[in-house]
Design a protein that fits this description.
Blueprint (H helix, E strand, L loop, with lengths): L2 H23 L8 H9 L5 H8 L15 H15 L4 E6 L2 H16 L3 H7 E4 L3 E4 L4 E6 L3
Helix pairs in contact: 3-4, 4-5
Length: 147
């Protein structure tokens, strides 16, 4: 290897090392508590009944609230929180039609797109209309409950 090639290799290695250090320094602390997660990352101040949904540890949850009470918002934030704090999990959004499940998927996408770029890059690997892939291997997928 010529001296120019060695210098180039060292420069590339140094740039790679500096880039890796910048990424580790720029990482944002991610709260593990769901209500704090929603507040810190998305500036969402949950009402008491919304906080109860966000904190619920049940595997299956039924929500019966009035119109415009924040059901879609809370469930979207809960899905994001769960995917970020539980590596390698799959969250399915199922509705009678793909159009309906994509309403929830779009809300999730809007929340993630609204994050500051460094935070979004820290959390999200790929953001598509019906699928979100997170850096820790989790996914959120929107599906219809029909053919």
């Amino acid at each position: 290897m010529s001296s120019d090639a060695r210098k180039l290799q060292k420069t590339i290695e140094q740039l790679y090392k500096e880039d890796k250090e910048k990424k580790s320094k720029s990482s944002v602390p991610i709260p593990t508590h769901s209500v704090e997660f929603a507040r810190a990352l998305f500036k969402f101040e949950a009402k008491p009944y919304q906080a109860e949904l966000l904190e619920d540890k049940s595997k299956r949850i039924v929500v019966r609230w009035s119109r415009q009470a924040g059901k879609t918002t809370c469930i979207a934030l809960r899905a994001i929180w769960f995917a970020v704090t539980h590596p390698k999990t799959l969250t399915l959004i199922v509705a009678p039609s793909l159009r309906q499940s994509m309403i929830m998927s779009d809300r999730i996408g809007d929340f993630l797109a609204g994050l500051p770029r460094p935070t979004r890059l820290q959390l999200v690997e790929k953001l598509q209309r019906t699928t979100v892939r997170f850096k820790k291997g989790s996914r959120i997928v929107a599906l219809p409950n029909s053919l």
